[in-house]
Amino acid sequence: MRVQSYIKQAMSLKIVDLELVLQKGLPGLKILGLPDSSLKESVFRIKSAIKSQGFDWPKHKQVLVQIHPASVPKSGTGIDLAIAAAFLWESEQLPRPVSTPTLFGNLTLDGKVVRPLELESPFVESTEVPVVTGKGEAPILRPHYEIKELKDLILPELEESSTLKFKVRRPDLDDILLTPSQSNLVKAIAVGEHNSIFLGPPGSGKTTIANLISKVMAPPKPSIFSESFAISRFFGEPIEWRPVVSPHHTSTHLGIVGGGRPPKPGELTRAHGGVLILDELLEFEKSVQEALREPVQSGRISITRVGGRLELPAQFLFLATSNLCRCGHFVPRSNNRCRCSLRKLTNYVERLSGPILDRFDILNFSDDWRNEKPQIHVKDLIDDIQVAVDFRKNTRNQDKANSRLDLKELALSFEKVGMLLPESIHSGSHRRKLAFFRVARSMADLNSSESVRESHLVLSEKLTLRPFLTMTEDIYKYL
Ligand SMILES: [Zn+2]
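Above: inputs. Below: predicted complex with zinc ion.
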């Protein structure tokens, strides 16, 4: 008989497979696969619970339990219920379930099932099936069945207990007017979830734009939002919409990235499923800027702890702002009021260029917005964005955001435009090319177009190739 259960690893619960056989041999229960002392003790609880509930314990057979993966040391008590259930099903004292169930609960000596506290943590690996567990005090997020005692263990007659109810509600939007290029920019970022950086002088609207993007995005996916919600509860501030996290640059590495003893999640995990805004990116500690590399690539962050590393979810849209010089007033391609020396200015631009910029799909100079008339109501963007996201999901059958597509996946949309690539693509890095194709895909979605057309490439070039060239090459002409 095979079932699934959880074992504790630091503050998270990991799925394990549990195999139980009855075989000839000395009667008793033996657990293989590196159990610790808390797990070894469960032998007594399980036997006592089974007998008190009126079931039989075999007098002439050995109960052998193997937990996979075998090489990882295991601790925790919630596995009691999984072993007891697997035994009752294997010995045919209860009807066997049709599929492999996941069970996690503590047993009392008289066979009552108690829900372990760990199941309330946000860091529970998800399974395909609801978890069978006992009653507890607080609501939990995972779909689950609640049973009172071993006798209730008759699947599939169990009714799925209600999971924690959360409300998804779009935050109120101020009636801001956007210029045409601001509106295009916001739509592209919100539709494709493209990491973006806004560069320019203070007061040019960088932060305003960064702050409104989460509000116009399509509603979050319930499976991700349930994780965001669990994390927000962990931080004591339950959310109703995608989280927006904007730590100050004076925040510590520990506070932003997570870690410590006992290990705690940081602001990067708090932004999971939402938006991380780093205002004045260059002011943040170098180690924070470095630590962003991993979550931006993989959607997870590993933090070091005693005895190993702990992985936490950290999948977010990353938005950043920065001045272009120390005094803040440098603007390429215009007369500007910058008071910095040439050396200082060059230093600043160089700090910004290269590896830092390469993490963003989109770069925008906020000063460009000044020459346009604000005329588009922010509220009017919501429908366009929703239609484009629905088109991606339902018509193109693509679940993940465009910003997470690789070149192979993107190629499907680009069959007809092979000859029309802009000149600027040849000077870009691999990362730049990817960004160019990903954003073009988002532009096509905003047009409900299955294939990417030349007009989409033109729009994408303005956001993904041209401004980066300005930063790395043209800008020196203005210094
Ligand atoms: Zn300056």
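The longest helix spans residues 430-446.
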